[in-house]
Amino acid sequence: MKKKILRLIVGPTASGKTDYSIELARQLKSPVISCDSRQLYKELIIGTAPPTAEQLSQVKHYFIHSHTIHSHYTAGKYEIEALSLLEELFKEHDQLVMVGGSGLYADAVCYGIDDFPQPDFDLRETLSSRMLNEGIESLRGELKILDRESYDTIDISNPQRIIRALEVTIGTGEKFSSFKSFKKKQRSFTIERTLIERPREELYVRINKRVDFMMDAGLLEEIKSLYPYRNLTALKTVGYRELFGYLEGKYSLSEAVDLIKRNTRRYAKRQITWFKRETPSQFL
Question: Which DSSP state fits 120?
Fold first, then answer.
């Protein structure tokens, strides 16, 4: 019996993968399954750049505004929910389209989640205190020394990622990256991956324009409404962190916007590094 096919479309933010995936889904008469770790939150309307109402109307989407920031969600939970959904959808479809920029969520579907150690909350608290007292650069430097592979592949603009990597590395005596070398889980379907790319300068222009568009669309007002929940993991996200900083008087609004653009460009660069490990590129 011929295996079903999952067409996985990945790429950096603002690359155009949403439009690409919708066009492909329409050709295949498939819904679109999102593997974006932030677009699934229904409270994050603007800052995660989810598909527009027009785009959502073209094909059925899953995992867009489907969960709440008030419920703890992980890549492990996503693996379980996404595989269950795929099993049901493959009963009616020979090919399905999945799209997103979250490497960990995409890998959860393709290979399964690594068997990472349980959190060490005392050590995490110590590292969090160090970050407040010494700054994020201090922790970045330590991670670079202790586990260069993780430093080169995780989002080092995200304090939570740095703290988690150091927590595992220091707590176990083994590199955080070493826990990723596990046996990949077998899937009942074939996965065909495509990495959507654009020339670097063009991508950066698109990112900058997108940030300006989000600000014009009311991102600051969205941030203000979410400020009471700023310590939730879901809000430790580029675009939200910087504007929370503005509300706290750390920098001006124009400085916050410039930081969003810079940090989004850096995040895009790391997305490309992650996906290029084994995904063929297609330039738009």
Answer: -
Question: Which domains are seen in the chain, by residue range?
Answer: 5-114+185-199+272-283 (3.40.50.300), 121-180 (1.10.20.140), 201-269 (1.10.287.890)
Kind of pairing, strands 32-34 and 95-100? parallel
**CA–CA distance from 103 to each of 168, 238, 277 (Å)?**
19, 16, 11
Residues 6+ apart with CB under 8 A from 3: 188, 189, 190
- pLDDT tens for residues 238-259? 999 999 999 999 999 999 999 9
CA pseudo-torsion sign 234, 238, 241, 244: negative
Q: For residues 271 and 264, what is the distance between their CA atoms, to the nearest angstrom? A: 10
Its pTM stands at: 0.79
